[in-house]
Specification:
alpha/beta; Rossmann fold; 5 helices; 7 strands; seven-stranded mixed beta sheet
């Protein structure tokens, strides 16, 4: 997929305030400091489209962008560690939950996982939540440039071994690096294919 245009639309904390147009939507989420903003910028080839910060928990709103005038990209607040109050964390949780469960335009939720770390309970619990609620998602292992290729494969193998203890099938997975651009073509091609299928379904 060629990114011909991408524009910021809005930021908000209300599901009802999200864009109403019936375009396919793809959201990105992950633990704080997983490299979400950097990945979005890499995919869109825009250096400062999503704000990158050294402080975990910087994204506190649902940020919507429109890509190629035919699909939405949603940048969601991270889950997990963030230097915010318990009340703020509760607000983030409620915001994310309402969006995931009720956003009708959502075609796929890309869940970002830092490939440098062994499987974390908070990530596994979030994936389980998505599975139980039948939310379509794909896993994106980030920061692949930070460790060697063999280490990347070993980490993913370990992750899948853990997943298969409770999952029948392994979810769609991608390996990515915001630094090298790894995974960009594969992720965008996946979105393009889902867009094609969504268009066929809408016209059938």
């Amino acid at each position: 997929m060629e990114i011909k245009s991408v524009s910021f639309l809005m930021s908000n904390t209300q599901l009802k305030a999200c864009p109403e147009k019936a375009l396919p939507e793809y959201a990105f989420i992950g633990r704080s400091n997983v490299g979400k903003s950097s990945l979005i910028n890499m995919l869109m080839q825009r250096k400062e489209l999503a704000k990158v910060s050294g402080k975990p928990g910087k994204t506190r709103l649902i940020n919507h962008f429109i890509v190629n005038d035919n699909w939405y990209l949603a940048d969601l607040p991270g889950y997990g560690y963030a230097k915010v109050s318990k009340s703020d964390r509760a607000v983030f949780h409620q915001l994310i939950t309402r969006y995931i469960l009720n956003r009708q335009q959502l075609v796929c939720l890309f869940v970002l996982i830092d490939v440098r770390h062994a499987p974390m309970e908070i990530d596994l619990e979030f994936l389980e939540y998505l599975g139980v609620n039948q939310i379509p998602f794909a896993m994106v292992f980030t920061k692949s440039d930070k460790i060697g290729p063999k280490a990347v494969q070993d980490r993913i193998k370990n992750y899948n071994e853990v997943l298969l203890k409770t999952w029948e099938d392994i979810p769609q997975q991608f390996i990515s690096s915001a630094t090298t651009g790894e995974g960009r073509e594969e992720i965008l091609d996946y979105i393009s294919e889902l867009n094609r299928l969504a268009k066929l379904e809408a016209t059938s």
